[in-house]
């Protein structure tokens, strides 16, 4: 397990370095003869997916989490589809493990379909290298996984299971209903995480996460330290 924090002088620099790390990981896996599964979260992390990101040949794109019961333009699938990297991948007929229009279906149906699609792709590519792009909110949430600071038992029961994904309603405001990866998936299945996290409103949470002062049920981003590799790019000086 390895967590590396890289401070950049501004958000533009942090974004460029996060984009560069994604490209580096893709090239390294491709050179090693591995297929690549790339899962992206939503929010500001998507800014790292610009035209400069290297596009591998044997490659599939999926979602880390998705919002439910909201309009199409609030869907992570839709927001990901607008990124320059996704457009480049689509033009090259990359395997896309989700469909933007069908993400409007009911939560349970979408949940089962997407998990089955992801597991089928993994079973056909058992030696794939899994990369995720993550961000973090000011409350320490990451990958659509929100804190339950007063209920570690419920948090662990929901997120630390054998499923790849879980359905929950612990988000904030109108975007609270989500499908997210499980903590177990992040720890067990992901080979490398690239985290793009900027903004001074996140300084308190980021300090606690990087120092190891909190547990995942208090701030889910604490799981980064338990992942195989996590690279955090930020304009926040700790």
UniProtKB/TrEMBL annotation:
Pfam families named in the record: Glucosamine_iso (PF01182)
Any Gene Ontology biological process: carbohydrate metabolic process
Glucosamine/galactosamine-6-phosphate isomerase domain span: 22-225
Name of the protein described by the UniProt record: Glucosamine/galactosamine-6-phosphate isomerase domain-containing protein
Organism placement in taxonomy: Bacteria, Candidatus Tayloriibacteriota
């Amino acid at each position: 397990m390895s967590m590396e924090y890289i401070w950049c002088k501004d958000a533009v620099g942090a974004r460029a370095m996060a984009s560069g790390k994604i490209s580096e990981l893709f090239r390294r896996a491709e050179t090693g003869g591995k297929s690549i599964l790339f899962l992206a979260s939503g929010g500001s992390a998507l800014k790292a997916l610009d035209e400069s990101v290297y596009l591998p040949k044997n490659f599939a794109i999926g979602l880390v989490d998705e919002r439910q019961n909201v309009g199409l333009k609030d869907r992570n699938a839709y927001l990901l589809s607008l990124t320059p990297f996704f457009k480049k991948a689509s033009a090259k007929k990359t395997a896309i493990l989700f469909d933007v229009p069908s993400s409007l279906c009911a939560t349970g149906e979408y949940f089962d379909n997407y998990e089955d699609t992801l597991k089928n792709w993994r079973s056909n590519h058992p030696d794939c290298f899994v990369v995720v792009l993550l961000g973090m909110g000011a409350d320490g949430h990451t990958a659509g996984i929100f804190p339950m600071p007063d209920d570690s038992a419920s948090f662990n029961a929901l997120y630390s299971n054998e499923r790849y994904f879980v359905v929950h309603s612990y988000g904030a405001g109108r975007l609270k209903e989500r499908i997210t990866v499980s903590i177990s998936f992040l720890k067990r299945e992901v080979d490398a995480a690239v985290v793009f996290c900027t903004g001074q409103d996140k300084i308190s949470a980021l300090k606690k996460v990087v120092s190891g002062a909190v547990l995942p049920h208090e701030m889910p981003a604490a799981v980064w330290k338990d992942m195989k590799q996590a690279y955090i790019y930020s304009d926040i000086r700790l």
